[in-house]
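Dear colleagues,

As part of the handover before I leave the project, I'm documenting each prediction I ran so the next person doesn't have to rerun anything. This entry is a single chain, and its sequence is reproduced below.
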Amino acid sequence: MRALLCAMLLVSFGIATMHAQGPDKKAKQSTKAASAGVSHTAQGKKPMVLMKTELGDITLELWPDIAPKTVDNFTGLASGTKEWKDPKSGQMVKTRFYDGLTFHRVIDDFMIQGGDPMGTGSGGPGYNFEDECFSSDASSAITGAVTDEGVAVRVFQEILMPYLRSTQTPDTVLKAMVDECVKQQSGKPLMQQTIEYYMEKTGRKEPLLSKGTLKAPVAYGTICMANAGPNTNGSQFFIVTKKEGCDWLNGKHTVFGKVVKGMDVVHAIEKKGNGVKMTSVTVE
């Protein structure tokens, strides 16, 4: 019941649950960066990726200065230098990950999403790694009244969600507030109280820190990591097709590059729908 409630809230708060790989899967990413990513980053160059699809070619510029771990992960998987878990055999392998995969989730005027070896939205490389959405200039703890919905979402993600997952009989007042959030499809019901109130009610000891400066917005033509909540990145990604961008996803999905050629192909995939294949993804 709690798991279902949390999933409903993720959708209700506008947090796109891009695949079903749950946040409780805590397999750690290797600390060794893939050689392809390291070489590009070390030279101070921006890796270029040629993504060949059934409908044409897409050229991507990646941004290691903004998201170094994400770029190393993507280029390592693409070039076959990074180990990943084959969901069919259950074995760890080093082969070119993205070749032959499809865009399994396509939503008109929003995005095209790929990178699932199962093609269902539930697959990944067998590990998760952290987000790279904000700079490291986070300063003080957030205290006092919950004054905006952005903070309310963080209260849900970082205070209420862990509490609900770990508590057999949650506080009835908190549960009622959560239920009201689902009903309204908004975080506003959490703006009735202070940060200190939620910390006391849930027993959380660690402060809720400000996140720092947003590194890059989820804008038109950017490539971003799909996830199932904070710090659950793996292999799935999406390319934004909405001309105005998707500002409601800012800070929730790591932006690690952009399309520099082939947006016409991206839109052709958008119009075609689910199932268009990536014949090869090559780091140039």
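The two ends are 47 Å apart (CA to CA). Confidence is low (pLDDT under 50) at residues 1-43.

All the best with the project,
I.
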